[in-house]
Amino acid sequence: MICRENDEEFLLIRQHDHALLAAELLGAVGNRMFSAPVPLGPVQLAVAQHDCAWPIHDDQPTIRDGKPRHVFEMSIQTTMTIWQESVDRVAAQDPYAGLLVSLHVMGLAAIAAQHHQTPSRQEAFVSNRFFHRQIEIQENLRRTLGMRIDLPLRRGLAEPGRSPEEDLLRANFFLLQWMDQISLVLCFGRLVIGGAQPVYPRPGGEPREAHIEPVEDAVFRVEPWPFERDRLDLEIPARRIPAREYADDADLHAALASAKMEMTSAVLLRRAGV
Q1: In terms of Cα–Cα distance, which of 261, 255, 257 is closest to 243?
Q2: Is 174 within 8 Å of 126 (Cβ atoms)?
Q3: What is residue 85's DSSP assignment?
Q4: Cβ proximity of 186 and 176 under 8 Å
Q5: What confidence score (pLDDT) does residue 112 get?
Q6: Contact, 245 vs 198, CB < 8 A?
Q7: What digits encode the pLDDT tens for the residues 244-253?
Q8: With 0-12 CB in 10 A as exposed, 13-18 as middle and 19+ as buried, what is 128?
Q9: Nearest CA to 86 among 127, 119, 45?
Q10: Residue range 50-61, pLDDT digits in tens
C-alpha cells in the first residue's frame, strides 16, 4: 500500500496499481536515445506483474500507530513472503519475466538488508533463505531459457560485455528498476528514492545516471528522457479516507469499504532543451 497524507485525508494506492502504472510508462519507452525493450512481451509482463502478490496485504491493509501502513513500513517476513509469491506467479507465466522479477526483488531485499543494521536472528534467517531461494530460481530459469549458468554473477547479473544476451538482461533489469522508481515517486507524490541509478539506453551501451525531480505538485521531470512523447499525463486509481487515528485494522477496513475509487493525476515532463 502507498499512502499520501495531508491534514485532512489519506490517499491510498494499491501496490499492484503502482506496478500497472510502471508498465504504462514502459509502454511509452522508445526514442532516438532509448531503444524499446526486447523481448517486449516478457518485459512488459515483468513490469506489470512485479507486485502482483501485494493484494495479500492491500486487500486487508494494516495500521501502524493508528495510520495506514505503507509499503516501506512492512516487516521483512511479510514483504519477502509477498515478493516470493510475486516471483512464483510471474515465473509460472513466462520464464524471462520471472527471471526479471526475481532479480528485482533480490535487489530490493539487498536494499532492505542494508536498512536493517541489527536484524533479529529470525529476520536474518528469513533474509538469507530468501536470497538463496532467488539464486536457485534464477539458475533454473536460466536453464529453461537456454542461458549460460557458468558466468560469474553479481546479484544475478553478469558483468557488462560478457555476451549480448547478458547485456540485454542487464538493460531490461535496470529499465524495470527505473520504471518502478518513477511510478513510486508519482504515486507517493514526492521523492522516496534518493540519488541516481544507472539505466542503459541501449543494451551493450554505456549506462547513464537517471534522475527524477519535482517541478510542482504532482509534476516531475525525468533525466535522461526515455519516452517517445515530451509529456506524459497519467492517472492513478486511489481511495481517500479521513486523516484520523484508526483504532485497529478493522476500523481502517470499514473506512476503505465506504471510500469510492477515483483517479488522481500525475505528469512527467521532459527538461526543456534536452
Answers
A1: 255
A2: no
A3: H
A4: no
A5: 77
A6: no
A7: 999 999 999 9
A8: exposed
A9: 45
A10: 999 999 999 999
Residues 6 or more apart in contact with residue 233 via CB below 8 angstroms: 265, 267
Indicate the pTM of the whole model.
0.95
Rounded to whole angstroms, the Cα distance separating 26 from 152 reads 29
Tally of structural domains, the chain: 1
Rounded to whole angstroms, the Cα distance separating 93 from 145 reads 13
CB neighbours (10 Å) of residue 143? Answer: 12
Query: What is the residue-wise DSSP string for the chain?
Result: -EEEE-SSEEEEE-HHHHHHHHHHHHHTB-SSSSPPPSSHHHHHHHHHHTTTTTHHHHTS--EETTEE--GGGS-HHHHHHHHHHHHHHHHHH-HHHHHHHHHHHHHHHHHHHHH-SS--HHHHHHHHHHHHHHHHHHHHHHHHHT--SSS-EETTEEPTTS-HHHHHHHHHHHHHHHHHHHHHHHHHTS--S-S-EEE-SSTTS--EEEEEEEEETTEEEEES--BSSSEEEEEEEEEEEE-S--SSHHHHHHHHHTSPEEEEEEEEEEPTT-
CB-based burial, 237-249: b 16+ in 10 Å, e otherwise: ebbbbeeeebeee
Per the listing, cell 526483488 goes with 105
| Count of H-run helices and E-run strands, the chain | 8, 11
Give the tens place of pLDDT for each residue, 61-73: 999 999 999 998 9
Residue 192, SS3?
coil
Q: Name the residue among 129, 86, 134, 128 with its Cα closest to residue 106.
A: 134
Residue 210 grid cell: 537517471
Give tens-digit pLDDT for 223-245.
999 999 999 999 999 999 999 99
